[in-house]
Amino acid sequence: MDISRRIARSRPLATTAMHGRVDAMKARGEDVIDFSIAISHFQAPAPVLDAVREGLRLPSLPYTSVAGDADIRARLAAKVINDNRIPASSAEILVTNGCKQALYQALYVLADPGDAVIIFKPHWPAYVATCKLLELQPVLLDLPDEFTDAVLESLPPARILILNNPHNPTGAVCREAELDRIAAWLKRHGAHAIVDESYEKLIFDGVHVSLAARPDWRELGIVTLFSASQSYAMMGWRAGFAVAPAHVVAAMETLQGPITAAAPMLIQLALAAAVESDDPTAMLDNYRQRRDLVLGLVREVPWMTMRCPASGPYLWADITRLTMDSVGFSERLLSEHAVAVMPGDALGVPGHIRIGYISDDVATLRRGVQAIIAFGNGW
User: Fold this and answer.
1) What is the pLDDT of residues 129-180, one digit of tens each?
2) Angle at 213 between CA 210 and CA 215, to 5 degrees
3) Which of 122, 126, 206, 245 has the most other CB atoms within 10 Å of its CB?
């Protein structure tokens, strides 16, 4: 049977493909350490579990409007007002089945085939893959150390700029002055911004500020994406939402209707409970200790450079002094040492690897990192 031209030239996401390979190995009984993805060893917050239990006691869990239950949207609007200083109404909230759906729908309604979309590398692979599915033109640029006026004015014309803040995989967090410059650039050039703030709660150093935390965010055309996956250790719940001007939300709702309709009501209840729960202090403290453990283990490794990330569940390692073939490095590491990492090629930057350090126990984390070091020393 023939398949469409659009999908025939597409490939599965490298991140999900690697995780799938590891799952298949584990299913065969193989002992594999999976650093290719970040799956928290923490459980979802207690208020989330309580909300689900209470939801299961309701007489029914109804269909909701495609954009989400009215009360849930109001609660999410209160969250972004109080936490993110985004002056949004419930009409500017769209509940989605995870952040990927919100990204797809935002790109679909803001751009037409052939439009340019600026993406900074290293990047979350879904940004590029989604652009290609929609026949948009991803423009890949190096993530700058700082968004200065000079950096911004050097950017090519584009319909949309995608900003990941906090950033996956480097852990960089934009300062407020940088966001002011980006907002000014958007205004001068008439471009839109899609801002992925999925890691907003995983901040070790500095302060997270939303690009849309300004009175003119609607005029600037800023769409902000949120996810419960990492910030609330809810990876398998597929709970996310978008904040966008009301007419953009309406357009995204029109698209979502025939695809999935509303997110499940039980997940909506869980999402609202998550964003209303306390900040994940214990989880963040644990992640910081793990981050520092890995940094200590690799500090004297001559062929690896790993900066201390200000946020996030990943460590980004430069192995160019050893090899530019990070795909080959990752493949051999998996086959010879049963340790999975994500090659930087998947995120647009060869010669690097990404390590998710929040899964399993600390002993397994240490064993896996030591295996990486031993493998590289013998490369």
Assistant:
1) 999 999 999 999 999 999 999 999 999 999 999 999 999 999 999 999 999 9
2) 160
3) 122
Q: How many angstroms separate the CA atoms of 309 and 354, rounded? A: 12
- Candidate CATH numbers 3.30.465.10, 3.40.640.10, 3.40.50.11710, 3.60.130.10; the one for domain 46-275: 3.40.640.10
Measured distance CA(97)–CA(312) in Å, rounded? 21
**Does domain 5-44+280-377 bear CATH number 3.30.870.10?**
no
Q: Where are the domains of the chain?
A: 5-44+280-377, 46-275
pLDDT of residue 11: 75
Of 100 and 30, which is predicted with more confidence? Answer: 100
pLDDT at 9: 79
Could you give the dihedral angle defined by the CA atoms of residues 79, 83, 84 and 87, in that order, rounded to the nearest 10 degrees? 50
**pLDDT at residue 21, as a whole number:** 84
Q: What is the mean pLDDT of residues 206-211?
A: 96
pLDDT band at 16 (very low <50, low <70, confident <90, very high): confident
Per-residue pLDDT at 25: 87
Question: What would the pLDDT profile of 280-306 be if each residue is shown by its tens digit?
Answer: 999 999 999 999 999 999 999 999 999
* Cα gap 149→217, rounded to integer Å: 20
pTM value is 0.95
